[in-house]
Write a structure and sequence with these properties.
Elements lengths: L9 H4 L2 H17 L3 H18 L7 H21 L5 E3 L16 E2 H26 L3 H10 L4 H30 L4 H4 L2 H32 L18 H23 L1
Helix pairs in contact: 2-5, 2-10, 3-5, 4-5, 6-7, 7-9
Main location: membrane
InterPro entries: ABC/ECF_trnsptr_transmembrane (IPR003339), ECF_transporter_component (IPR051611)
Membrane topology: Multi-pass membrane protein
Length: 264
């Protein structure tokens, strides 16, 4: 489950502003680079951070399973629709097929671009849970505020992140309730049967989310949220030597990766 995991690792103690900056810079780097070696080095850095955090990569088990399907879908779509000069298969649809025969082609450039997009997605999706799992929501909100983001928007972002484990728990509860009613399509059913069964999961999930959002809105109104332009905070954050050192390392690493991306 993607939620905060208490710990005493270096990443847990790191200032949330440094982790937010790392997330933003690495995300930009991942989306501007078109080189697999650069993406590989960024992915290696993220895996090292996972190791340092002390959180098992197994915590992302179900999350990564969903990610694999999405990555394969992205690669397939780009392979089919991204053109190129080096043709591997042409046509995709045999000539004897009426009306659409002889259409489509698969090029090396399309396959490589699809793999690049899939790798980008995987790198980003491994980075974001790391930040969430090593940072308290209150510290993350305060980090956004200290970086100049208005508290309203910081509250929106952190509230959305805080709802991820809540939605996961709701999905687990709905699934268990369906199992008690001998509804096992998601476990034993085929692909078509699973697709037909999704409304049984989505409808109660959406209704529960709407009820939850109404309760959150009422609680905010009761506490006069936004009545004062300036806020005070019970807990504060401060940059220390280790935070500045890691920030300098991240900036130097990203600068090196940008340079390597241009050179390759």
């Amino acid at each position: 489950m993607i939620k905060y995991h208490a710990g005493e690792s270096f990443l847990h103690k790191l200032d949330p502003r440094v982790k937010i900056i790392m997330l933003l810079i690495l995300t930009i780097l991942v989306f501007v680079t078109r080189n697999f070696p650069v993406l590989g080095l960024v992915f290696l850095l993220i895996m090292i951070c996972w190791k340092v955090s002390g959180i098992s990569i197994r915590e992302l088990g179900g999350y990564l399973k969903l990610l694999v399907g999405l990555v394969l879908f992205v690669v397939l779509i780009q392979t089919l629709f991204q053109g190129g000069e080096t043709i591997l298969i042409s046509p995709i649809i045999p000539d004897f097929v009426p009306l659409i025969g002889g259409m489509g082609s698969i090029a090396v450039e399309g396959v490589l671009f699809g793999l690049l997009l899939g790798f980008r997605l995987m790198v980003i999706m491994c980075l974001m849970p790391l930040i969430i799992m090593t940072t308290r929501v209150r510290d993350l909100a305060l980090g956004f505020v200290k970086l100049g983001l208005p508290y309203r928007y910081a509250f929106m972002i952190t509230t959305a992140l805080n709802q991820v484990p809540v939605l996961q728990e709701q999905i687990a509860t709905i699934t268990d309730a369906q199992k008690l009613r001998a509804f096992t399509a998601f476990e034993d059913g085929g692909t078509l049967q699973k697709l037909k069964s999704y409304p049984a999961l989505v409808v109660p999930l959406v209704m529960g989310s709407m009820k939850k959002s109404t309760l959150i809105g009422t609680a905010m109104d009761v506490r006069s949220f936004g009545s004062r332009p300036k806020r005070t905070y019970l807990h504060d954050i401060a940059m220390h030597g280790a935070d500045w050192a890691f920030l300098c390392f991240i900036l130097a690493f990203c600068a090196g990766m940008f340079t390597l991306n241009v050179m390759l």
